[in-house]
Design brief:
Keywords: DNA-binding, Metal-binding, Nucleus, Transcription, Transcription regulation, Zinc. With 347 residues, this protein is mostly helical. Helices cover 47% and strands 5% of the residues. It has 2 domains: 36 residues, CD2-Gal4 (Irregular); 238 residues, no CATH class. About 10% of the residues have low confidence.
Length: 347
């Protein structure tokens, strides 16, 4: 006997009783007028999008909370908000501590050599003269490594607020990228501070700001780069954009994990493009020219890359890859199966 084939979902709004009787249903909630008159059960496959405005109905009729939408005129179709596709995740305290430590290391790393996993000094035409946002945050990071962080926090907060205002008034994407990178460094110093009473509790506004920052960069990133850029600088620019977006979302997740012991991930983050050749980030011009290839097989989604690491398909995982693995999968590199002699990839 053939198994029952599941029926496809229906968009019908009429109640079951009116649909079976082929009668018009006024879609009242929780019971339509016909079912209420006949005193029978009124069941809906889908909650009605509208609720009648007749106030003379029975007191038994109530309004469905959060699902009530006003019926629009036919000439003005209604636009429904997308579903909040977020998945809650919770990690072990060891993984959370590892992620917090990794994010906290960015300001000190940038202070020492003006380079992090998402900021590369060779991106600028004249490394000795980076954008003003980068210069200012570099000076602040150097102070952060040598000064009591508690006394420096008001200055970092002021700078963070200034960068947040500035990012909405940038004149080029390059300026927007530099501003976003400086803002992320400021947030690493602020929201991961140990003893700051202002950041003791989780703030939804900070999480929203970091989310919007990544979305803004992704939406306004140029499709094509100027032909005046050398192949290496063009790659560094594209990689800087991708890594800045990824680090922004990792920081958002780490902030939530530190304050609430859980976080959320979204399909948008999982689908971000990622270049698996992470070692090229630390290569000089000669090494980059030797290691780069023309194949597009090196581009995968962030979800694919973290899954490849988790399954033991990548040999020699970089520090940045270790942070991605911890943020996406909640696992440490040390706990991964060692790649076999065949079937793994080295990047």
């Amino acid at each position: 006997m053939a198994p029952d084939i599941p029926r496809p979902p229906t968009l019908r709004r009429s109640c079951q009783a009116c649909a079976r009787g082929k009668r018009r249903c006024d879609q009242r909630w929780p019971r339509c007028t016909r079912c209420q008159t006949r005193r029978i059960d009124c069941e809906y496959v889908n909650i009605p999008l509208t609720v009648g405005s007749d106030r003379s109905s029975s007191p038994e009729r109530t309004t469905a909370p959060t699902l009530q939408l006003t019926r629009k005129r036919p000439s003005t179709p209604s636009i429904h908000l997308p579903l909040p596709l977020e998945i809650t995740k919770g990690y072990s305290q060891n993984i959370i501590a590892f992620l917090v430590s990794g994010m906290r290391s960015y300001p000190s790393s940038f202070a020492s050599n003006m380079k992090t996993h998402f900021i590369h000094p060779d991106l600028w035409p004249h490394p000795s003269s980076p954008p003003s946002q980068i210069r200012d945050i570099h000076a602040l990071c150097k102070l952060h490594t040598t000064t009591n962080s508690a006394t420096l926090l008001p200055l970092i907060k002021q700078k963070s607020s200034s960068l947040l205002r500035q990012i909405n008034h940038t004149t080029s994407f390059e300026e927007m990228l530099a501003t976003a990178q400086a803002l992320l460094l400021a947030q690493c110093m602020l929201i991961l501070a140990e003893d700051d009473p202002a950041t003791a509790r989780y703030s939804e506004s900070i999480s929203t700001m970091l989310f919007n920052l990544g979305q803004k960069l992704w939406q306004q990133a140029p499709v094509q780069l100027p032909g005046s850029l050398s192949p290496r600088r063009a790659w560094l620019f594209a990689e800087s954009v991708r890594r800045t977006i990824i680090v922004g979302f990792i920081l958002r997740s780490v902030y939530s994990l530190k304050k609430r012991n859980y976080s959320v991930r979204t399909p948008f983050v999982d689908s971000l493009p990622f270049d698996v050749r992470t070692s090229l980030w630390d290569q000089d011009t000669q090494g980059w020219n030797t290691g780069v290839g023309e194949s597009l097989d090196f581009m995968v989604s962030l979800h694919q890359y973290s899954s490849m690491m988790e399954q033991g398909m990548i040999h020699g995982i970089s520090d940045f890859g270790g942070l991605i693995l911890a943020a996406c999968k909640g696992r440490a590199v040390a706990g991964l199966p060692y790649p076999p002699a065949r079937g793994y990839k080295v990047y």
